[in-house]
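Not sure how to ask, but would you mind making up any protein sequence you like and the tokens describing how it folds?
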Amino acid sequence: MTKPFPLQPLVHLAHQKNDAATRKFGKLNQQQQAAQARLETLLQYRRDYQAQFQEAVQTGMGQTDLRNFQNFILRLDEAIAQQRETVERALSSMQAGRDELEDTQRKMKSFDTLAQRHAESEKKLAAKSEQRLQDEHTGRHATFKATSAQNES
């Protein structure tokens, strides 16, 4: 009879932590991609607005409109700067999530290796025990045959 692996609860916990870290990393990856997409949208909007501004300057515009365009572009630049910071934070979080995932994978693999070694050890012990029983049975059978042969003579 094989003994259960005494660290099996830790193996199970390592798998749970790895699953959680995988989900977390996926979520962080999505957040980073969304932040990057928002940044790209803001940058494209600024380019479009800058082109409109250049066109309006060439065709002529009033002082108030000029000031409004410039103020709006400044606010866009501020929003772009904030979004760049958001993207950087998301990248940092994603890297931390990747590191955590790699750590949980390493631990999980270590526990899995220990569990596998335990199972192999138990199989070897079971095989030795089976061989011992076979040897005893063969020995008894040979002794019984020898005894029977002597009694017949």
